[in-house]
Write a structure and sequence with these properties.
By secondary structure, the protein is of the alpha+beta class. Helix content is about 60%, strand content about 20%. It is built from seven helices and ten strands. This is SPFH domain-containing protein.
Length: about 400
Amino acid sequence: MADITRRLGWRHLRGAPTAHVRHHHSGRLVHDGPGLSFWYRSLTAALSEVPVDDRELAMTFHARTADFQDVAVQATVTYRIGDPALASARLDFSIDPDTGIWRGAPLEQLGTLLTETAQQHALAVLARTPLASALVDGVGAVRDRIAAGLAAEPRLPATGIEVVAVRVVALRPEPEVERALRTPAREQIQQEADRATYERRAVAVERERTIAENELASQIELARREERLVEQRGANTRREAEEGAAADKVRAEAEASRAVRLAEAEAARQVALADAEARRTERLAEAEATRTARLAAAEADRAVRLAHAEAEAAREVGEARAQAQAAWLRVHADVDVAVLHALTGTRLAENLPHIDSVTVSPDVLTGLLSRLGGAPSAGRREPGVADGTPPGGRA
């Protein structure tokens, strides 16, 4: 379809290289050719656009064979418009000056013309051909007849149409008829398959028989070899028994010799152990005697040292006591008799057993008070003090 542009009451048309444009103005042809581009006024212009490229027309129609079987024909016709001026004169290829769209349907008219013409010639050739022949050789025959018929059709050149090629894609019968036609071939194929199966089974049986014969011959040969094997095994067993007896004899002699050597070695070992034990016992006794003598000497020395230490300690203790006693006497030599009496009572109380309670009678208390009141004079000495004897009469 051509491109049309509007500019201030004018129209500009730009055609495609595969479209032949014819421009008439007031009945006069102004522009004519493919791929044109020009300005025009829509009110005074008459435009036609004729496609000049090759076009494919697919068609499918039904036909009846000589044996009254329906078949479907699928074909394709390739054509082009060789004379655009003649085609635009016979068919309406005019376009709208404002939109560039065809006012009619010229391509549909061409398709109807080509389809009906091709269908007419195909029906004529299939009506005289049986179904089997049509399925085998019908494609070529129908194609040739359609091509010849379209070439001889006078209306096509008068319309400016050229047929480029004719192709018949397929001839198909009805599904039921097609299945019925396939049945013999399927049966034949099945028979061939069955025959191949039977032949394969026969070959397999023959091979199985051959295998069975081979197995039987192998079993017979194996039985003979088994018999020879049993004989050989018996001979081997006898030989093994003889060799085993000889080996047992040698083994027994070796065991006896080994036992004797072991007994002798054990006796020598026991003697050596006894001697070693005696020497060990003797060394232990000597060591024990030496240790005992050393311990006795050490114990005697320790006892002597302890005796000397105890004597020295006793002497030092006696000297300490004598010195303490002398110091005590020196301290109490000039002390008053009453104080000495008090100290004596204190020492006595320390040495007395435990007393829970003391009962003092009035008579005793009176005597004590009177004695305390009539204390001796300072120049008077209690007995035993002047001569250095401590109270209680202890030296």
